[in-house]
Amino acid sequence: MKKIYCLLLAVAAVQFTHAQKIKIPQDTSVTTKHSVSVNGNSFNYTAETGFMPLWGEQNEPVASIYYTYYTRDGIKDRKNRPLVISFNGGPGSASVWMHIAYTGPRVLKIDDEGFPVQPYGIRENTSSILDVADIVYVNPVNTGYSRPIPDEEGKVDREKFFGVNADVTYLAEWLNTFVTRKNRWLSPKYLIGESYGTTRVSGLALELQNSQWMYLNGVILVSPTELGIERGGPVEIANRLPYFAAAAWYHQLLPSELQNKDLEELLPEVEDFTINKVLPALVKGGFLDVSEREEIAGKMAHYSGIDQQTFLDNNLEVPFRLFWKELLRNEGYTVGRLDSRYRGLDARSSGNSPDYNAELTSWLHSFTPAINYYLREELNFKTNLKYMMFGPVHPWDRSGDHTGENLRQAMAQNPNLDVMIQSGYFDGATTYFNAKYSMWQLDPSGKMKDRLSFKAYRSGHMMYLRKDDLQQANDDLREFILKSLPKENEPAKY
Question: Which of 56-60, 158-162, 443-447 has the lowest mean pLDDT?
Fold first, then answer.
């Protein structure tokens, strides 16, 4: 572990040294004009991309944050025009994924199921939410082109940027600058985050209210993380089964009576078994009756495509990595972590874990050339900095993660704040059932459950890569935004 830590620090040092050799722009942008047709309606829009400084305690620039900002043309008064603020996750991931594959006016060229095709490129996004909202894509420090600015001694204070709470604090400060400069204080505002980005935007919801006095209308959690919500032990183990069932159903490995059911008919059955049978059995641990243990293991095998003995050998707890290795072992494949529709090839069929994440290598195959081409050739942004799909942000301080509670408190303080969760059924990293669990636990009182909504799709972590889900997920976003806008002069009160 110590060797890995030293290696990470060495990589970070190289990145910082390289950044110092290349002059880091602090406050510059490029503006271009474009058009797009969304749901059959064509309109013009403006793209602005560049750097905006993050100010330190002495009003000095401490980082240069790279962003891309899209505004629909022809809007005379933007006080009623929603602004969507978009983050991806990692931590350490650039804001590229949702930018050029989900909500933006251009999407990368892939096949209808999300697999890479050549020649690489981008195309018009006829599903973009730019028709109803302006969008800014923000790259946190050391992602995309964003970089920290070393002090006079050439040092960077990593604690300012690389941790759950540090990340939220500095990004809230930067958003204050952005909203002020772009004159968007009167606009309805929405945060959207994907994966670790959901941790980020959940924390930002409260930080923006309490430290920047900036109130939101909505938060969208795409493939959410655990948000600091407790689920260890039997709950964490039991919650895996509905995802196991979904992945097995996709690969047609379930018994015929289950396989012949539609996925959304099957999963409620599995969820019921998970909550009412698996969870109580796991609570009993080693004192579970032998016959009951075998019965539960048999039923878990029935729903998962994994044999009964594997569950018994693992005390009813089949780890995710073993599942990804085991599900298609007899066919010679592994399945992807973030999207189990993807198949991988290992050096050996034996073992308890895949050699690599099949879905991530596929995504990088198409995203990396697309974003580098798009920013330079279509948005006319030229720089010698490397666009970091994943940047050196580790070690990441995960202590004090109360972001789920922060989001609940932000909702309680702000009657206008609604939350929507979007998940893919075949996501094995941030599973759809764990996302449901988070929603159920987010507001234990149940007093705000009418302001929480859940949408699921027949794909994985980045559900928008599948053509049908790209359209549906954007339609769901569009509906959420329009429904959560308060009527004119309607007071925010209980």
Answer: 56-60
